[in-house]
């Protein structure tokens, strides 16, 4: 419960605290009784009414709660009220949200902002209302007002993110993105940027406009120091270079990432995509972690490539050399990426119609020998197994069984093994 100078919604906190304690302990009848006593002393308090509405809603009386909220709104909208605080509004908003009447909560905040236009807390509450209603234009307008009022970086970023949401769901994206870029440039010139998230948003705005060279320049400048981990910076550089079709430079960048993070599966796929100059399935925004390994089957139809067969095979061989070096240099038995990468390389070779001379099955066997004790083994290789013929599956199954039979029967003291 937010308070200011010992007051809560214009009422001394000592009178309000017992009600909240009763609500928190789910003693709603006791809370309602205390609320009635509070209303008897403060009959014209919107906050006291909001508290009663909250209790009624928790007691499963939505109609009564809505009626009490309406009374509170009438008081808020009357000329007699000289003070409206965010605690009253947020309490009403909680009730309205549970009653599925977000529009009424927004109306309360809009009225409060019109009456107290310099109250930053209330404006933030209004912004949150627009977020819940997916009102991206109003989000942007409110965030800009807060930025002009407080000059804080976070409000500018809220405005820019609201613009990005508009671009995703409407036309006129080019003009909106130009506006977002101009806002950020102006802020950078006067205040610079102070958070890595701010830099990421700036880069994404440039990227959405296909200004890859400009984004790379920003990343290599002073602002690039905002990114704490060098690997994260390299990933961004690699993605931008690839989207600018500078595949050779991008492949070098992703190789550096793999040398420091050999289990980074996304970076390996990006590295391989750059070598083969095929970024169809790469460089997409992902919420998964960088180390997540494959969980779904890619298309098993060979993708057309403009590379000659000789060049295609040569680049796969280069990738295999890098992966084998990662395997050799690795000292952590739990790192699966380089061994799974070998399977992926042989899969690409097979999809392109090249004879693999049993190397695909061999890579699967090596992976089984090293990681069959892990619970994730099946999901790791599932997509690869679907490429095998029935005869190959039978052969592989038999070899798996032979490996298991040859395992020592004495327990091995090793993480992940029994």
Automatic annotation (TrEMBL):
Could you name the Gene Ontology cellular component terms for this entry? NatB complex
What parts of the sequence cross the membrane?
none
- Output the Gene3D superfamilies linked to this UniProt entry: 1.25.40.1040
> SMART domains recorded for this chain?
TPR (SM00028)
Q: Which domain of life is it from?
A: Eukaryota
Q: Which PANTHER family match?
A: N-ALPHA-ACETYLTRANSFERASE 25, NATB AUXILIARY SUBUNIT, N-TERMINAL ACETYLTRANSFERASE-RELATED
**Family of this protein:** Belongs to the MDM20/NAA25 family.
Report what the protein is called.
Answer: Phagocyte signaling-impaired protein
